[in-house]
Amino acid sequence: MDASFTPEQDEIRRTLRELLRQRRGREPRTAVDTPAGYDPALWTALAEQLGLPGLALSEAYGGVGCSVTELALACEEVGRALCPSPLLGTAVLAAPLIAALGTEAQRAGLLPRLASGALTATLAVPGTALATALALTGANGGDWAGGGRAGGVQARRVQGGWRLYGQADQVLDGHSAGLLVVAAHTGGFARSRTLLFLVPGDAAGVVRVRQTALDATRSQARLQLREAEAELLGEENGRDVLAALAAVGAGAAAVLACEAVGAADRALEQTVEYVRQREQFGRAIGSFQAVKHRLADVYVGVQAARSAAYYAAWAVPHGERVGGLALAQALEALRTASAEGIQLHGGIGFTWEHQAHLYFKRAAGDELLFGPVHRLRAHAADTARLFETSERREVAV
Q1: What are phi and psi of 29, to 5 degrees?
Q2: Pick the CATH number of 122-239 from 3.90.105.10, 2.40.110.10, 3.40.50.1980, 2.40.170.20
Q3: Phi, psi for 18 (deg, rounded to 5)
Q4: Which pairs count as long-range contacts for 29-34, CB under 8 Å and 24+ apart, including other chains?
Q5: Cα 82 to Cα 21: distance, rounded to the nearest angstrom
Q6: Which residues contact 38 (CB under 8 A, 6 or more apart)?
Q7: Cβ contacts of residue 326 below 8 Å, gap of 6+?
Q8: pLDDT digits (tens, 9 = 90+) for 246-298
Q9: CATH 1.20.140.10 fits 243-390, yes or no
Q10: Which segments in the chain show pLDDT lower than 70?
């Protein structure tokens, strides 16, 4: 592994940081209060000036032709600014699934629009099973999509297409996405299986309600499907849907890890700036040894998480799936950095007006969405068969 960045990767990071810095005066909370939940003008700039939505898409479909690595590095800068945008749902979740499973007609019709930013999309899974569907906290072969039982999202074939019925409760940008990639159960109990379907956001039978989320910078919605018309993504007997979801989950974990590292780094940076200015007993509180020790521990944690996140981003194109472990490390670093930031900011750190609480909520919100740290680590250990005895390994083989 070459740990140095290429000139192209450095340019992506530099240009994106500069663009976000120019708009730093626009608080994240200002953007989340808009009907879309993000700044449409900024999204247009990210798409037109940087090609961010299509960064990891093939040039044949209007993308830039980079890999998940470049997308993850870009998301580190997005995480630093806590920039609300439909990037995660569009470029990290929906687009890779369409590219992997879609027919040629579906790819040609949808991917160029996603790459240009003209169309936003997201992944909708039943209930609160996003981490399960992406195989981040365990195998995704269970009954999370319905499993032949009541609940979940059910799909039935009708003349000329499919109809979906059910509910998804934690759909990222679900209230504003132009396209929904919906995971639904079909086949009844005897022939149970999960398929993915394409549903326009404004289709008849689709009811979308924006939810009040812990992390306001990640908009979420409840999605109700009432006999909504849907188009099957790909062929019915095509590539394994669960395997495709797991592959997308591996890439998403690496992207989220880099994003969390960016947020943790910025939370630490803000805290260091503050303790250099805040005076107590006639001197800056940053000069006290106890404060230095606490911030040194945070710095070590952030740097360790950054190394893990960068390796995970590099590993995705090389077929290694270590994103879950890197995500656990990054979320823990973000939680620690944001909590110490609130403490060391003192009284102002607890106020609604200050940004410190936004970073803490990002850490807590991501754990709720993508799996708590201990479960991410437990799944990584199970996958590596870390705690199996030699006898059990021999039996498994």
Answers
A1: -70, -25
A2: 2.40.110.10
A3: -65, -40
A4: 29/216, 29/358, 31/83, 31/84, 32/84, 32/216, 32/217, 32/219
A5: 12
A6: 31, 32, 83, 84, 85, 86, 173, 176, 219
A7: 253, 254, 257, 305, 308, 309, 311, 312
A8: 999 999 999 999 999 999 999 999 999 999 999 889 999 999 999 999 999 99
A9: yes
A10: 1-3, 24-27, 147-151, 188-191, 389-397
- The Cα 51–Cα 41 span in angstroms is 14
What pTM value is reported for the model?
A: 0.93
Measured torsion, CA atoms of residues 105, 106, 108, 113, in degrees rounded to the nearest 10: 150
State the DSSP code for 347: G
Cα 193 to Cα 267: distance, rounded to the nearest angstrom: 43
At 184, which helix (H) or strand (E)? strand 179-186
Length of the chain: 397
In order, the DSSP letters of 265-288 are HHHHHHHHHHHHH-EETTEEGGGS
The pair of three-digit structure tokens given for residue 359, joined into one six-digit string = 């970073």
**Domain residue extents for the chain:** 7-119, 122-239, 243-390
Torsion sign, CA atoms 15, 17, 21, 27: positive
As a whole number of Å, the end-to-end CA separation of the chain is 30
Decide: helix, strand or coil at residue 151.
coil
Q: How far apart are CA 54 and CA 61, in angstroms?
A: 9
CATH fold, domain 7-119, is Butyryl-Coa Dehydrogenase, subunit A; domain 1 (1.10.540)
What is the distance between the alpha carbons of residues 178 and 375, in angstroms, rounded to a whole number? 32
Residue 207 DSSP symbol: E
pLDDT of residue 393: 52
What is the pLDDT, as a whole number, of residue 25?
A: 47
Other C-beta atoms lying within 10 Å of the C-beta of residue 65: 14
